[in-house]
Specification:
The longest helix is centred in the middle third of the chain and has 14 residues. The protein is about 35% helix and about 35% strand. The protein folds into 2 domains: about 60 residues, Double Stranded RNA Binding Domain, CATH 3.30.160.20; about 80 residues, Ribosomal Protein S5, domain 2, CATH 3.30.230.10. Helix 3 packs parallel to helix 4. Helix 3 links the parallel strand 7 and strand 8.
């Protein structure tokens, strides 16, 4: 019985603290004297569905190595997103920009869901946002869109944050 217990403990895998989603994998080629040298670039978003989200970009000669590097970079880029209405939506409309890309995010009523495409959807779902409207304006390159979405999420502030910054009571701000 003792031996059986030890064996089961050995194969238990630790629970992951973050979910991860690979947004895009690009093939990069560098022309050298002998021909083209191929590498891979991976964009990964991680989040805990409770308000923490991050993204990372990794480059390597093989796809799994690029994803592993991107995951390590994403863990260093984590931010906390303020959520309201029972932790389901964002506190106010916001626009994030990066390069030629803009991402507009607006809070939505309960039950609306995540109205967003590709890269924006990955970031918002992993952050734990359930009801939100979004619109991509300008560049739709996944890397630019993820950067712009993260910029928008960094700009979010709750009423409590604003009252603390202005040294006022919450009632005075509302």
């Amino acid at each position: 019985m003792e031996n059986n217990n030890r064996r089961s403990r050995r194969f238990e895998r630790p629970q992951k603290e973050f979910d991860e989603r690979v947004v895009v994998i690009n093939r990069i080629s560098k022309t050298v004297k002998g021909g083209r040298r191929m590498r891979f670039s991976a964009l990964v978003v991680i989040g805990d569905h409770k308000g923490q989200v991050g993204y990372g970009l990794g480059k390597a000669n093989e796809v799994p190595d690029a994803i592993k590097k991107a995951l390590e970079a994403a863990k260093k880029n984590l931010i906390r997103v303020p959520l309201v209405n029972g932790k389901k939506t964002i506190p106010h409309p916001v626009v994030g920009t990066y390069g030629a890309g803009e991402v507009m995010l607006r809070p939505a009523g309960e039950g609306t869901g995540v109205i967003a495409g590709g890269a924006v959807r990955a970031v918002l779902e992993l952050a734990g946002i359930e009801d939100v409207l979004s619109k991509c304006i300008g560049s739709r390159t996944p890397i630019n869109v993820v950067h712009a979405t993260m910029d928008a999420l960094k700009q979010l502030k709750t009423v409590n944050n604003v009252s603390r910054l202005r040294n006022k009571k919450v009632e005075e701000i509302r």
